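User: I'm curious whether this sequence folds into something compact or stays loose and floppy. Could you predict its structure so I can see for myself?
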Amino acid sequence: MRQVGLFCFHNDLRLVDNPALNQATAEVDRLICIYCLPPYASGHKSPNALSSQRLQFLQENLIDLDNSLERYSQKLEVYYEPPLQTISRLITQHDIAKIYSSASADYYVNTVWKILKQRYAMISFEQTESSFLFDTIQLPFDVQDLPDTFSKFRRKVEPLEIKTPTAAPDSIPPPPPKVAASLWRQQFPAFTPNTKPLFRGGEAQASKHLHRYFSRGLASTYKETRNGLDGMDYSTKFSPWLAAGSLSPRTIMQALNQYERDVEQNDSTYWIYFELLWREYFQWYGQKYGARLFTHTGSKNKKTNTSFYPERYQKWCQGNTPYPIVNACMKQLNSTGYMSNRGRQLVASCFVHELNLDWRYGASYLEQQLIDYDVASNWGNWQYLAGVGADPRGHRRFDLAKQTDIYDPNNEFINSWAGDDCSKVLDSIDAADWPISDSNMAAKS
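Assistant: Here's the prediction. I'll summarize afterward.
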């Protein structure tokens, strides 16, 4: 009897270094490959809709994966309904015997996986870790005993060996004959294409970028340039493909190690590994804390005095605050779907400290906008800046004027993104909804 398997792609939209897919190809006779859009993506008219930039990048990744599968006489089916509903229907329709996926730090994805395992005890559920540098079994501690700071984590895991990426499968079992081809490409949520996107999605583009980055010798000066605010060369720019899973962290490490052997090993090349370890820490942080990643009090269970002021929130989103460096970063984000790491720290610090806003609203807005959105890194970093997460110093606040002097001393970035074109007044009404702008006060007198 032929066994039918189901492979659930999530943040592993690639064929190279996808051991879960390799396992599936070795164990079943027929395979259905699916992807379920994130909850926000299907409701593109909702206030919580994903940005056009994020949708475009996601679509490009999915099309590239579908084209790659086609060369194996396979295909990708994309669904716009909740995965629990989709997978339950496919189990019934195709008598699924085994379900495969890559392990994830996404609480929503993991919750669905647990429910399915409980509901369908007769089915074999197989999950493999490939989106992290290390496997759970390698860690010198239990995930629930994850160190409470990055420095402690780094010291424990730096000596660990990183596995060599696996090759793409030689062959992939075909789908069952009765799986009809869908028109998912034509039915993809509507968005306005960006004619000049910073990044193109897909495993092929990720591979090209990886080769291009190391072949140009940029890794040798990464530590000196990494705090840049604009342009394509100051940082590695691996994060969009890492987030989509069209590039794995182990593949990056393989290329980095090759560069250190063939070209140069210095503080800058080490710092690329250091930043990958930061990403790694937040992946396990997400695994450990689950739903607490999204709670106001964070992993520290610490109360904050922030609140929600709609006018301040809208001004921050639009880049219309009294802080030019923050405005420039937000306008860059809204236009491109990307923002530098330094910029993300500045806008988050402003959101929490200068605007006194509940950090979760800022994290949610970046979730909608960033093409390199990663659930654990995004929410973990916001907790860090809000003082409710893994920062040992607590409430970390950046002096925006000083940061501008250091990283944009000639106002080139601010001028480029019209950061000075803004409202100089933070609030136009007081807490009792009385107008407090200068024009209104003058009218009263």
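Summary: Residues 43-47, 439-445 have pLDDT under 50 and may be disordered. The first strand starts at residue 4 and ends at 9.
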